[in-house]
TrEMBL record:
Protein name: Uncharacterized protein
Native species: Euzebyella marina
Length: 126
């Protein structure tokens, strides 16, 4: 989710966190009240700096997972950049990267994953 849209979608973020807790994830970090904020990464490109913060970071069986919430966005290009960065970061460190989505956003999520050649990722549908 792009930072601008986080405040609008707080409810779905909470729903996603409770789903992750129910499926055995622990040490959950999320960019919302009551949770520790995940580590941010700075991306420098063409003189501009962009801060990339995963929506949710959690641990299961000793392995770190990065979760991104996929909802229809006004800034799909920024979202694609963020997903590619987090996917690369997770593969470098032998972690996992997952996408969480909900009804009404499946087609958007699938087309975004196709566009950036991450069609092997199966979104978690809540």
């Amino acid at each position: 989710m792009v930072k601008v849209e986080k405040s609008e979608n707080q409810e779905f973020l909470e729903k996603s966190i409770s789903h992750l807790e129910a499926t055995g994830f622990e040490n959950i970090k999320a960019d919302m009240e009551g949770y520790e904020t995940p580590k941010s990464y700075v991306r420098k490109a063409k003189g501009a700096e962009t801060k990339i913060t995963p929506d949710i970071v959690a641990v299961k069986n000793g392995r770190k997972y990065y979760f991104e919430i996929s909802l229809k966005s006004e800034k799909p290009r920024l979202l694609k950049t963020k997903w590619l960065f987090l996917d690369t970061l997770s593969r470098m460190n032998q972690n996992r990267f997952r996408i969480i989505t909900t009804r009404g956003h499946y087609k958007f999520t699938d087309s975004m994953l196709q566009d950036i050649n991450l069609s092997n990722k199966e979104p978690i549908k809540i």
